[in-house]
Write a structure and sequence with these properties.
Number of helices: 21
Largest sheet: 6 strands, antiparallel
Mean pLDDT: 88
Strand content: 5-15%
Strand order of the largest sheet: 1-6-5-4-3-2
Structural class: alpha+beta
Number of strands: 6
Low-confidence stretches: none
Number of domains: 4
Shape: elongated
Helix content: 55-70%
């Protein structure tokens, strides 16, 4: 029976506007019909100030005595009429709603979980509308007429209101418990879903408290189902190594276990999400399932199975923010990989061509230029074919970057081996055209700058098979003189190779790019042609020798 019908005002037939004398008279009259001690307690509760406040707040404050009696009488005959009532103070209306949900028999109300969920929702919003100031105003209006001291301290009302809310929660729980577990879960789920906009908005306090109580009561079931899920997860991991054909039916079984678990956990997930909290059991189980998907993909390349598990997470953990935040990223990664694999066959000839060029250039750098030119000649048609077959731009661009990186490697290897920098320039220009990624473009540009500088410094040199002899006897022989066109990066410079006579350079033979190792020791980098001034030097030397010979003949 509802506490509304155990209220001292109801037991004695008193109103909130009766004075002490009238309350005592009513108690004496009722004692002739009811239990004497019960009537005396009711009288004491209405006369005592603290006990009276509890009686007033569990009655119908703010409602006139006549209307209060009519509402209570009508409630016994048709309890659900109160849902349609309007203009009642929030606390009085909530008390009537609590009474309605408790006075009816289980077979009469609620008719179905949907109806109960709506009742819970209405009750929750009513309770949220109750304010301490409204309660004090309504009670003091009646106390002023009845001659009782007015309420001045809010804290007394606040404490009584906490007790009222506990009673409302208890009333709803009793109504829920009259249902089967399936109907109970559905009623709570519908109530939470409608009051939180599917986990987006904060629910009324009463809903949160009901869910917190529900969570405590469901922990054992959720824990047992999570353990069952863990067993299936371990079996999937084991079969991934031994017999992958059995993975799919086990994932289907895992889906069924999680679906059963989710039915109970879903209202908790929504409520926690609406409050910015995390349901720990959902989080832990979600991460365990996600780790399985990562393991299947990373260790066994089982992308389809991993995707099936990620779909499971999306279906059952969207309201658990700690898990859901990873699901979208995981889906995008798997979708990207699946899409890439789909077009691997279209672009594989390009990668095979590039990998072959890298292999040959690594073994024989002198052939790197030929390999690079082979790529430049063939890849345009291969790219065109891949586009026509539907390869996405992302895949095409990725292959272009691989082409650019390969051509750059060929250019570097060929240049370092042969010093034919102009040929390297051709490969790098093509690499720059293919490059899409900014980092690869930057790498190509950097090598272009180096090659252009090398062409300036080394353009007129050619590779050497052996170093030239450097020796003089009494100032006569072969040696190097001069230092021009210095390369600041490695300290090399161009020096002229002379035939000297008594340390005087007589005939310039050629020029070499060298790095001085100290003293008369050099590292030779390449051989260059004589300059115009060197050719004039030869001409003058020859002319001087001819003049000397003619002069000697005359004399």
């Amino acid at each position: 029976m509802s506490d509304l019908y155990q209220n001292p005002f109801f037991l004695l037939g008193a109103t909130t506007r009766d004075d002490r004398r009238h309350i005592v008279e009513l108690a004496d009259e009722k004692a002739l019909l009811l239990d004497h001690e019960l009537c005396q307690k009711a009288r004491t509760d209405l006369i005592g100030l603290r006990a009276r406040l509890a009686a007033e707040m569990s009655w119908l404050p703010g409602v006139s005595p006549k209307e209060a009696l009519q509402l209570v009488d009508q409630l016994l005959n048709n309890p659900m009429f109160i849902r349609m009532a309007s203009g009642l103070p929030s606390l009085a209306h909530a008390n009537l709603m609590a009474a309605a949900i408790n006075v009816v028999a289980a077979k009469e109300y609620p008719e179905n979980p949907e109806d109960l969920s709506r009742f819970i929702k209405e009750m929750a919003y009513l309770v949220d509308d109750i304010t301490v100031d409204d309660i004090i105003r309504d009670i003091n209006e009646d106390r002023l007429i009845a001659g009782f001291p007015l309420i001045l301290a809010k804290d007394l009302v606040e404490q009584e209101l906490i007790d009222r809310k506990r009673y409302y929660q208890k009333s709803i729980k009793e109504a829920l418990n009259r249902h089967t577990p399936k109907s109970l879960i559905l009623a709570i789920t519908l109530a939470v879903d409608s009051t939180t906009a599917s986990g987006k908005d904060q629910a009324p306090q009463l809903i949160d408290e009901i869910v917190d109580s529900y969570e405590l009561e469901s922990q054992y079931f959720l824990q047992k189902e999570a353990e069952n899920a863990s067993i299936v997860i371990k079996r999937i991991s084991d079969y991934a190594t031994s017999d992958q054909a059995l993975i799919k039916p086990l994932i289907d079984k895992l889906d069924k276990v999680i679906a059963n678990w989710f039915t109970v956990a879903y209202p908790i997930q929504m409520s926690m999400n609406s409050r910015g909290l995390v349901h720990n059991q959902s989080r832990d189980l979600g991460f365990e399932i996600r780790e399985l998907a990562i393991y299947l993909f990373n260790e066994h390349k089982a992308i389809n199975e991993a995707k099936q598990i990620i779909d499971l997470l999306r279906n059952y953990f969207s309201q658990c923010a700690a898990v859901a935040v990873y699901v979208e990223d995981d889906e995008n990664v798997l979708a990207g990989i699946a899409n890439k694999r789909k077009f691997d066959k279209l672009i594989s000839p390009i990668y095979e061509l590039c990998n072959e060029a890298l292999s040959v250039s690594g073994r024989n750098p002198q052939y790197a230029y030929i390999q690079g030119q082979n790529i430049i000649a063939k890849v345009p048609e291969l790219l065109k074919a891949a586009k026509l077959m539907g390869a996405p731009l992302e895949v095409i661009n990725e292959s272009k970057d691989h082409i650019a990186a390969t051509l750059t490697t060929c250019a570097v290897k060929f240049g370092n081996k042969t010093s034919k920098w102009k040929s390297c320039l051709d490969l790098l220009h093509s690499a720059h055209i293919f490059a899409i990624d900014p980092q690869i473009k930057e790498r190509v540009s950097h090598n272009l700058e180096i090659v252009r500088n090398n062409i300036i410094l080394y353009g007129n040199t050619e590779p050497m098979s052996s170093t030239p002899p450097l020796y003089t006897i009494n100032g006569c022989g072969l040696t190097l003189y001069g230092s021009t066109d210095t390369d600041l990066t490695n300290g090399s410079y161009m020096a002229t190779y002379y035939f000297v006579l008594f340390f005087v350079p007589i005939f310039p033979i050629c020029r070499y790019r060298v790095i001085s190792s100290g003293g008369r020791s050099y590292r030779f980098l390449g051989k260059g042609a004589l300059r115009t001034i060197d050719k004039w030097h030869i001409s003058i030397s020859v002319l001087v020798m001819i003049i000397l010979i003619i002069t000697n003949i005359r004399y």
